[in-house]
Amino acid sequence: MVTGSAGFIGFNVAMFLRSHGFEVVGVDSAVKPEDLNVEYYKLDLTKRQDVVSLVEEQRPDYVLHYAAITTLSSTIQDPYSAFLVNDFGTLNLIDASAKVGVSRFVYASSVIGSTRVPVRIGSYERQTPIGLLYGARLSGLEVKSVDPTTGQVTYLPVRSVIRHRLGAKKLFRIWYGRGEDNVVATEDHSIFVVSDEGFLRERAVRDVRPGADLLFPLSGQGEAISPREGALLKTSLSQGVEITEVEMLDQEEIKLLKKDGDYDGYVYDLSVPRSEAFFGGDSPILLHNSSNVYGVPRSLPVREEDRFAPRVPYDHTKVVGEYMLSAYANARGLKYSITRSWLIFGEHDKPNRAVPIFIRKAVHDEPITLFNGGRDVDDPYHVSNYLHALELILGSENAIGQAYNVGTGTHMSTAEMARQIVEVLGSHSTLVDAPPRSELEREPKISYPSVEKIRSLGYSPITSFREGILRTKDWMEKKGMLRTGS
Description:
The chain is α/β, with parallel strands linked by helices. The protein has helices at 8-19, 48-58, 72-77, 79-100, 130-133, 230-234, 251-259, 313-332, 354-363, 383-394, 414-424, 452-455, 465-478, and strands spanning 2-3, 25-28, 39-42, 63-65, 111-112, 116-121, 124-129, 141-147, 152-157, 160-165, 171-176, 182-186, 190-194, 200-204, 214-215, 241-248, 266-271, 285-290, 336-341, 344-345, 368-371, 377-378, 381-382, 402-406, 412-413, 431-434.
């Protein structure tokens, strides 16, 4: 679930996820963009019950939160709306996510207690009902699964076993093979199947296609081929076991399960390292935040542990959002990650933001206005760099409960950014100094990040400023945004 998916960054994130095989639910208060090719819900996040209903209905594995009022002048003129949307909207989303237990596990989510899973302690292997693992000593205990980083069937250490009531979820029985082999699970329980493209993918029970999808069952039959070896996998379909039927259980069948002692009213999740198909870790909530939380830094470059010093109402709303996440992490065990971004630009950017304005002016050789003399200093970078950082953050368990600065680790003033855009595009535009937009912004904001923390996850920028400007200009041209009067 990607909130703010009609906006610049949310749109790019939603399409990036979709291009990597995810089912994406877009959420925004605006009308769906024509080229946003995902399931979409027009929703006001300040309507608490509407948010709860949608999250309970969709039960997403991940919630990536980008919805916010971001225009500084708007938040100065109307602080109340800024706090209502940016904070109470965020609170509604966090609370709803905590209630449904948004998370991502290898066998998530969830199976009944009698479901047998292959486990190992040392050299001793056996099939064990998952319910017996709840409350058991997990030290040294491993469970057989598919390691999505290698595509191999292997044993992975059990990190935790979670038990919770079935609630509003429906139970399904998945039949596979030609005998009586089956498993009873909730509709969003993930299984590994061979996709149409010949790759090993996770798919929710509600989305499998009997007679078409091939299951790598809990018994670990066969040896999964690495997803990177697609050609080999296409010739190895016999290693999977055909899913023959998926049926929803009615109340009478559930009563029989209880009577036979197979179902105790609870469903169970196993959590193990690398518990994802592409992105991973138990990091269900990702809050996209702004470098504005730091305000005017006391020292440079800005590090994640530096104190917050918000200036305008927008800055304050972003600080409050982080504290809300921390509170739910402490009180409800909610797992999250935070990105604190500097100036992102690129395809699908809004026409009233600095880089698109500068590009449009430069293309037509028009004067470029620099508020406050263009003295603010930032770290502008193309959105592809952010998506690369996002992939690494969601793919690392070390990122749970952490905030990361995202940028390039370099910096330039607004005036220098305008000059470089003029140079890159071969323009004859002149730069015109103008006063600040408000007294609060009279002191120039000089802020650029240290990216050492995210470098520890393997991050480095993949798109240069020059290449990013050219890509953005080409996209604006295709969209007719550079015509005279546009």
